[in-house]
């Protein structure tokens, strides 16, 4: 519930985030730089796995979930949720396996770790397995391991034979001799990450607070895009890596995966849902307008551009 008690008190917005990595960099940057505070918002970032975040949003325990792929299954199955912004439109995940596993086809009979069944990485993995003649559940056992540190620990300890990882755990996997099986950044797939997913009821009842939240997040988004020097220490702090690895993540992963202005055109919207539709076998999917509403994000981007706003140091 958003609390609006007076014109001088901040509106409280609880935000579920699936990680403390580059996936939610726009949100953490907006918080740390005071952009939410400037809009009169008190924003609380709450860490929980992506599938749990979607459920927390549906139950009203949070106002916003920053999930991407994990938010699509409930929306496609009719949940009253909508995507109104997205930081990224390319998947920033890698599939790493034990050194003795030469390729994806050799995962048959093996176990693979993901954050949660139905999450974005899980959907990507299913599509990759399908393209290699394998099926999740029948040929490959997929285990829900929660947040990224736990997933990587599962790979290290041998609980799983392979895992869906994102930086900085990809760097650690390379250093420790695990084999890169797929770089999803190089695949022809559209994957939402760092998105703003919220309930239709919140959007309709308090569009003013929603616009303020999107505007502040968009400023954090622009800070990342336009302030390389300022972003690196922030990224390094959240990834818990030195600045040289933060620069590598920024140049090779973060910047190339970012959308132009937090929105997707009609074709990208269609591609974002197609592989999830295949997995869910939805016969009568909702229209794109029931899944996405980027009208406020486009208005915010235009307003910020007209005011010639520039990110500070």
Spatial sequence of strands, sheet with the most strands: 2-1-3-10-4
The total domain count is: 2
Tally the helices: 14
Q: How much β-strand is present in the residues?
A: 15-25%
Low-confidence stretches: 1-7
Q: Could you characterize the architecture of this molecule?
A:
The protein has a five-stranded mixed beta sheet with strand order 2-1-3-10-4, sandwiched between helices. A five-stranded mixed beta sheet has the order 7-6-8-5-9, sandwiched between helices. β6 (111-114), α5 (120-131) and β7 (141-144) form a beta-alpha-beta unit. It folds into two domains: 11-90 and 190-306, Periplasmic binding protein-like II (D-Maltodextrin-Binding Protein, domain 2, 3-Layer(aba) Sandwich); 94-186, Periplasmic binding protein-like II (D-Maltodextrin-Binding Protein, domain 2), CATH 3.40.190.10. It contains 14 helices and ten strands. The chain is an alpha/beta fold and 313 residues long.
Write a concise keyword list for the protein shown above:
D-Maltodextrin-Binding Protein, domain 2; 2 domains; 5-stranded mixed sheet; 14 helices; 45% helix; 10 strands; alpha/beta; 313 residues
